[in-house]
Amino acid sequence: MPAEQFTNEFVFSMRNNKMEEFKERYRNLDILLIDDIQFIAGKSGTQEELFHTFNALYNSHKQIVFSSDRPPKDISPITERLRSRFGMGLIADIQIPEIETKVAILEKKCEIEGIHIPSDVSFFLASKIKTNIRDLEACMIRLGAYSSLSGRTITV
């Protein structure tokens, strides 16, 4: 789940006097996977609840996975005890893939979406778009839509 969803559910539970249901739901999972954990920076109530949820799951030998756009030491402001929890497991820095990998991803996405993009265009896009795969996919969708609406073939 996105960290924003965890935060929203926490706030809803606090406001509606449903914290026991919230705790029951999150502290009895087999795995907790939260994306964009940096979103909780500056949210002291969410951090406090996540700390206790983390401890409950950890003590029950459950799996906990957090993803972020930065390493735990660079997420600020966040409590030190939560930062130490983030840093106590395996930290994997996932970088933007090489051009060949981006081309393969793009070609697979084109196949799934039914969009025909020539290999030279795939390579051109993969070499020019340096941000992330989502931006590459968005470009492919725009090109496919343009081609479909205009009736023109996609070329470099």
Q: What's a quick, concise take on this entry?
A:
By secondary structure, the protein is mainly alpha-helical.
State the helicity in percent bands: 55-70%
Q: What are the low-pLDDT stretches, counting only 5+ consecutive residues below 50? A: none
Number of strands: 2
Strand-pairing-aware structural class: mainly alpha
Main beta-sheet strand count, sense and barrel state? 2 strands, parallel
End-to-end separation: 38 Å
Order of helices and strands: HHEHEHHHH
Side by side, the strands of the main sheet go: 1-2
Strand content: 5-15%
Oligomer classification: single chain
What would you note in describing this structure?
The structure is a single chain. This protein is mainly alpha-helical and 156 residues long. The chain is 56% helix and 5% strand. The chain contains seven helices and two strands. The protein has helices at residues 3-15, 19-26, 44-59, 80-87, 99-113, 119-128, 133-150, and strands at 31-34, 63-66. Strands 1-2 form a two-stranded parallel ribbon. Helix 3 (44-59) links the parallel strand 1 and strand 2 (63-66). It is elongated and about 60 Å long. 16% of the residues are buried. The model has no long low-confidence stretch (mean pLDDT 93).
